[in-house]
Amino acid sequence: MHGSLAENAALLEKLLAANIASNRAVVCVPFPYLSQVGALLQGSALAWGAQDVSEYLKGAYTGEVSAPMLAEFGAGYVIVGHSERRALFGETSQQVATKVVRAIAAGIKPIVCVGETLVERESDQTEAVVASQLAAVLDQLTIEELAHVTLAYEPVWAIGTGKTASPAEAQAVHAFLRGLVAQKDAGLAAGVRLLYGGSVKSSNAAELFAQDDIDGGLIGGAALVADDFVGIIAAAGA
């Protein structure tokens, strides 16, 4: 929950000036700024989307924003199941799965987040936790629908804490997640995009992205600083 009209314009101006390659980066913004960002990025190589979506299509759900509403504004992506939504707002894996289905039906590509807490990691529950979170989504999707999904592993203990999973630790979970997708369709698993989200910075991005199963990053605070974000994107391209 960052940004203002002026701050958004300044950030996007710098990103556009960096001439980022097409299909290399997506900017996901709070609902009030969808129109502004859509207008500023129209015709550019930068894609954009929202940070959440409702599990409901329409009705008496005051404050909710549906997938068709996002699509009407032109959003191409939406983050679903972010750890903050799960932890602070009590979202269940089943709710996350329903949101994914709604997004895909509206023509929006979901970025589906999974991850474990520090307690869960220290008690060797990482694989069980992320497997359960991902299974709720996989069970709801056909192979064709799953092709529109990007997965993001975000260890809760490494978000905004300055802590980062080591490249080997992150790679192990990413490989595990790709293996779970392979159980549904091996061909699809080879091409599914897996992002790492956990205090990614321009200084550690290259080493993280060099891992076999880490295809990019889900960037938080560093994405609010244009030079840092551009550096991370360059590391992914390399």
Radius of gyration: 17 Å
Which structural class should the secondary elements be placed in? alpha/beta
Poorly predicted tracts of residues: none
| CATH level-3 fold name | TIM Barrel
Order of helices and strands: HEHEHEHHEHHHEHHEHEH
Distance between the termini: 30 Å
Mean pLDDT across the residues is 95
Number of strands: 7
Helix content: 40-55%
Strand ordering within the main sheet: 1-2-3-4-5-6-7
- Major β-sheet, in short? 7 strands, parallel
The proportion of strand residues reads 5-15%
* Top-tier CATH class: Alpha Beta
CATH architecture grouping: Alpha-Beta Barrel
CATH superfamily: Aldolase class I
Silhouette: globular
Count structural domains: 1
Number of helices: 12
What does this structure look like?
The chain contains twelve helices and seven strands. Helix 1 (5-17) packs parallel to helix 12 (226-237) and helix 5 (93-105) packs parallel to helix 7 (126-138). The chain is an alpha/beta fold. Strands 1-2-3-4-5-6-7 form a seven-stranded parallel beta sheet. The chain has helices at 5-17, 34-41, 67-73, 83-89, 93-105, 118-122, 126-138, 143-146, 167-184, 186-191, 205-209, 226-237; strands at 26-29, 47-50, 77-80, 109-114, 150-153, 194-196, 216-217. It has one domain (49-237): Alpha-Beta Barrel (TIM Barrel), CATH 3.20.20.
